């Protein structure tokens, strides 16, 4: 049975796309079945990775940011 520290290492490798053997995947799944803390960690890690890979919607161009900053500077 994996300890939480080992499960976190395996979960990090899994999310990073590193190949895990079937025994490592089985041990991780078994641990996740019994440990809600590690399940929550893996869920949050996956959400973080997904959010980092998304591009920001409606990102302002450098010119638009510059115009807004100029308007703010010109107002008393």
Question: Care to describe what's here?
Answer:
The protein has four helices and no strands. It is an all-alpha fold and 76 residues long. The protein has a domain at 4-55. Helix 1 (4-16) packs parallel to helix 3 (36-53) and helix 2 packs across helix 3 (36-53). It is elongated, with a radius of gyration of 21 Å. 12% of the residues are buried. The mean pLDDT is 89.
Layout of secondary structure:
Layout (H helix, E strand, L loop, with lengths): L3 H13 L5 H13 L1 H18 L8 H13 L2
Helix pairs in contact: 1-2, 1-3, 2-3
In short:
This protein has 76 residues and is mostly helical. 75% of the residues lie in helices and 0% in strands.
How is the quaternary structure best described?
Answer: single chain
The low-confidence runs, each spanning 5 or more residues with pLDDT under 50, are none
- Average residue pLDDT: 89
Shape: elongated
- Category from helices, strands and their pairing: mainly alpha
Could you name the key traits of this structure?
76 residues; mainly alpha; 4 helices
């Amino acid at each position: 049975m994996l300890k939480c520290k080992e499960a976190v290492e395996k979960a990090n490798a899994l999310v990073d796309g590193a190949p895990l053997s079937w025994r490592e995947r089985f041990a991780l799944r078994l641990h996740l079945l019994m440990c809600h803390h590690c399940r929550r960690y893996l869920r949050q890690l996956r959400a973080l990775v997904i959010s980092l890979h998304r591009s920001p919607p409606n990102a302002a161009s450098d010119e638009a940011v510059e115009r807004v900053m100029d308007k703010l500077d010109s107002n008393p």
